[in-house]
């Protein structure tokens, strides 16, 4: 992927032409654009002294800073993926699918830029992605990957919530995960329309709760899509 594709700014996002579509897509667009609106940028304290990390590996950090960098890393990955999807649409993509995926791309860019600004000097570097396993010309490959990313994102936010100490950060995470869940539902609906796959038992348990996974498990799952090695060794675990 070209570097310019990975660094699409919020200002550039605002120039994207939006293709009219159905109510589901319009609802998703409205929800995503208003999620972080009105939330103040959060002043993040300095990192604590963290443990040693292998050379060339990006350390996410510790405490709430580490958790925010963890979220920032995931948003970088998702934003890069959807930027590539829209830059090189898969064969026979419909206007409604293109519009929906464009909205999701825009949401992920907003989330990425929000975390980058909120973290300031504490933000990790821009990550280099590895999408060689994805066939961007194939609808099946793109949507299957999108499903993995969205389901993983929801589980990641759910699993990290209990590790956040600051109430303001927790509020922000709750707002963003609700949008990620809408993304997950929309992608699942594209793959299996007119079914209940959007709330399948592979992601919602018998108590009606979404899956939640620890950062350590999520980082293992997403590392194949990143050339930049990440370490969550200093992230909180309780």
In short:
The chain is mainly α and 238 residues long.
Strand order of the largest sheet: 1-2
- Known CATH architecture: Up-down Bundle
Give the biggest beta sheet: 2 strands, parallel
Question: Which range best describes the helical content: under 10%, 10-25%, 25-40%, 40-55%, 55-70% or over 70%?
Answer: 40-55%
CATH topology: Ferritin
By CATH, the superfamily comes out as Ferritin, core subunit, four-helix bundle
Per DSSP, the total helix count is 8
**Number of β-strand runs:** 2
Number of domains: 1
- Quaternary state of this entry equals single chain
- What is the terminal-to-terminal distance? 37 Å
CATH class: Mainly Alpha
Task: Describe what this molecule looks like in 3D.
α4 runs antiparallel to α5, α5 runs antiparallel to α7 and α6 runs antiparallel to α7. The N terminus is likely disordered. With 238 residues, the protein is mainly α. It contains 8 helices and 2 strands. It is 53% helix and 2% strand. The chain starts with a helix and ends in a 7-residue tail after the last strand. It has one domain: Ferritin, core subunit, four-helix bundle (Ferritin), CATH 1.20.1260. A two-stranded parallel ribbon has the order 1-2.
What is the fold's blueprint, element by element?
Elements: H1 3-6, H2 10-13, H3 23-35, E1 58-59, H4 63-87, H5 95-119, H6 139-161, H7 167-191, H8 215-222, E2 230-231
Parallel strand pairs: 1-2
